[in-house]
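Worked example (supplementary).
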Amino acid sequence: MGLREPAWRTTTRELAAAQSEERGRGERAATYLWSPYGGRFNRVAIAGILGPAEAVGRTEAPSFWKARLTDPFGTIGVTAGGFQPRAMVQLRAAAPDRPALVVGKVHLFRAPDGTGIVSLRAEAVRSVAEAVERSALAEALRQTLDRLDLLERLEHEPAATEASLREAGYPRAWITAAREARRRFPDADRAGFRAGLRAGIARVAGRLGPATDGAPWPPGVTRTVDAAPPVGEPGGPADRAEEAALLALVDEGAEGSPDGYADVREVLRRLLDRGIGAERAEALLGRLEEGGALQEPIVGKLRRA
Amino acid sequence: MEEERPEGELPELRLRELVSLPPRVHVVGRVVRARRKEVVRRSDGGRRTLLAGLLSDGTASVRFTWWDPPREEIEAGTVLRAVGAEVREFRGAPELVFSWKTRIGPAGPAELPQIDGEEIPRRTVRELVDGEEGFRLEVRVVRVASKPVSVGEERRIVHEGLLADRTGLVAFTAWSDFHLSAGEALRIAGAYVRSFRGRRQLVLDERAVLRRIAPEGLPEAAEWLRRAPRPIADLEEDGGGEAAAVEGLVVALLPPSGLVYRCPECRRSVLNGLCRVHGTVAGVPDLRARLVLDDGTGALTVNADRAATERLWGIDLPTVRERLRETPDPSRLEEELAAAVIGRRLAVRGAAVRDDFGLTLTPETIEATEVDLETAAEELAARLDGGR
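After joint prediction of all chains, the assembly is encoded as:
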């Protein structure tokens, strides 16, 4: 044993869905997240646009940093601390919103209400040329499609032997992950997920992104003011009211929680009750975080700055 | 002491005679491996030495137990002639016992039986396992090169290279000059398989019989060297392989990487000015990079040498040493190297072996690769449209 865990090539969308956890037993046992699309993630490699790093905590010499990585499907939090000094230095490196590759371990945060948020603890971060980021995305899409093909094959031939699948070129770990995905996620919409990969192809082809005019980048991304639907004039009275409502909810959530943080899902749900939709809320959150009023030191956890 | 037995008929024995009547044989064989042991007699606590090992004559390998062996080391490779050895059966396989009743002594390799290729089973490259012998093999010489080595005091020429059939590649070492050249097709008998540092090797010594054959059914010599990269997971499953081609991203740099110092005698790494074998030495500076290459299915360690490291890093050893003089912190250099290599996409070819820590590949070639984005996008779109 002792084989290094491979870095599964994947996307933010699959990671967000990979919420079924398998905890290893024993000392230094690996933890895995099963995805509905045939992944068993411990280490992953992902490409996207890396946002600016923020220190977590308010100590003089912060030793834990986080940033957001955006690909054509969404965003994921990327953290690095003193135990990953190489990754931490890279994460903090200047030039925000740069194309980057991130290799890291998956981490599932489970909120009290059961919702899960997947983030990455970076082991390696590298700023790359846009072509390299797009190549890595192409590879992730290709391997994701390979895994979906395997799932499809198992759907048609549930009794397919491991030997025959190995013969067809599927690694053993993928076969295990595909069988487990069918067991753990019987109702997953794999066809929908597959169709959704098209957004990634546009990015691979260069039809989407900062280098080309036209389509906004990051596309469909939440928490950036540009990409979200209009939220009214920033600074206008309606806007300020919504911000105030959000901050109040954060305060309430933080007060009622044992760890002193408000849960982002909880806040979003309560905003929805007040008629503020998810996209709008995300835009507000993004602006408040950028403006320094709010912090998200742990992915999925909010507090006043 | 030789017992006479009537031909074709087994004599009736009293049970007590069973002890004194094991069949005795006369054999010549080569020691494949041998280990000295000491056993304590239960009856009186007396100690007795024995040598346990494996003896082979090219047709089969048989375990042996040599009671009270000579004091001098019996090394693997020694050829022995044993007259009057006992044969016993253990778990269905014959075993030889050399005792005071056996006349045993060294013999020359020429005394080993000549093996004809037809009477022994045929194997494919993929089927070969460590310690195997007594098989024949039909292969193509992929490449061969000679190099001088010192065996004790002696200088000898060893011929090394790769052999291939349709099932795979195997390294070989020939201690005699068979005048091999790349592209030749051969039938080999009387060779044996030995693993060295996890790498399977076919050993051809004096008693190996080689015959040139028609190359029908054998791959072209260069075919295996041109193969497209294969998933690292497959290579892991095979336990490594010769001239293995893989492609992936560099996801980590393992220590020791960067500027290292090597023993001037043996080229081992020098730690704190000490060589593990030669003690205090003046280390010779060198560059290396231990890259973790990952293709999404698996990961392996690529040990890049000075030339490859210089190419990946973009600076040469004198420049690295110059930088060290300016900033005397070797770990800074390692970080610089890490920054230069992590995230790079490389195609690597070389011999891969597996140990407890996974696969390690010694590269023959390392090339940076690029993905043709337009083609990639078209292929992906076609797969999405076509369903598969």
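Two points are worth noting when inspecting this output. The two ends of chain B are 76 Å apart (CA to CA). The helical segments of chain B are 17-20, 232-238, 306-313, 317-326, 330-341, 373-386.
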